[in-house]
Amino acid sequence: MRSTPHYEVHAVKYAHLPRKAYEVQIAPDPHDADFPMDYFVWVAIPLDERGDRVVGGKPIVIDTGFNTQVGKSRGRDVVRNPADMLADLDVDAREVEDVIVTHLHYDHIGNWDRFPKARFHLQDKEMQFATGRHMCKAPFRHAYECEDIVGMVRALYGGRLVFHDGDEVIAPGLSVHLIGGHTMGIQSVRIMTRNGWLVLASDASHYFWGIENDKLFAIVYSVADMLAGYDRLKALAEGRVDMIVPGHDARVTTRYPASRPGLEGTCVRLD
Ligand SMILES: [Zn+2]
């Protein structure tokens, strides 16, 4: 009998943005030309010993994406709302009880209102960052949406926020880990799968070039923490870099197989 519960894990791509290296990297290599950015939410679904979904098992959603209105205001098109896209995997956003918020940037928490029963799991430091003195500075404030942060304060007073400080287990086989770097309180998620530990880096590494080449994304709270974070992600994956999934790399949808026939290019299975 296996000791740790397993999950199937999917990335759901809900938006796309063409980008150039100089827009996304600190000190970009002039030979690095196009770095298209895809936008994802992720979901982990518990499996039984035979690899079938646990009857009555509770899916855990990681991040909620941005909505059409905010996307439009920032020049990004939403293909479909990610809360709706989860239905393609038989996950009903309205019934989800746990949402892990890797960080509070607009493209990770935007559809919080589509998860009416959810508790939101967040690092202490991320709430501190998003509501504290650093938001007096426009470069830090830029990727946050005031209404999302207000929504999280309302969720806090509604008893629906769960704070974490560092490494914590959310459910057997699934844990969060404070990484920092990109924001003060960004966390990554480690999940036990049929292939071993899978690490959803989220924006602790936007692209494969972060973990593979120590390149730096242009939105950063601490360069030191971002670089140390790459090492931490590799340690969490027990050295298997192929088990680390970056937050925005457009190659994710081609590197992994479709979650189901018909979902090619939008939902891919990561384990
Ligand atoms: Zn992001």
Description:
With 271 residues, the protein is of the alpha/beta class. The protein has a single domain (6-269), classed as Ribonuclease Z/Hydroxyacylglutathione hydrolase-like (Metallo-beta-lactamase, Chain A, 4-Layer Sandwich). Helix content is 24%, strand content 27%. It has helices at 21-24, 68-73, 82-85, 106-109, 124-131, 138-141, 146-157, 208-213, 223-236, 252-255, and strands at residues 6-17, 25-26, 37-47, 60-62, 77-78, 98-100, 119-123, 161-164, 168-171, 174-178, 187-193, 196-202, 216-217, 244-246, 267-269. Strand 6, helix 4 and strand 7 form a beta-alpha-beta unit. Bound molecules: zinc ion.
Number of domains: 1
Radius of gyration: 17 Å
> What is the number of strand segments?
15
Catalogue the unreliable spans. Answer: none
CATH architecture: 4-Layer Sandwich
Structural class by sheet pairing and helices: alpha/beta
Helix count, DSSP H or I runs of 4 or more residues? 10
Strand percent estimate: 25-35%
Order of helices and strands: EHEEEHEHEHEHHHEEEEEHEHEHE
Query: What's the mean pLDDT score?
Result: 95
Dominant shape: globular
> What is the CATH topology?
Metallo-beta-lactamase, Chain A
Question: What's the CATH class label?
Answer: Alpha Beta
The largest pleated sheet is described as: 8 strands, mixed
Chemical compounds bound to the protein: zinc ion
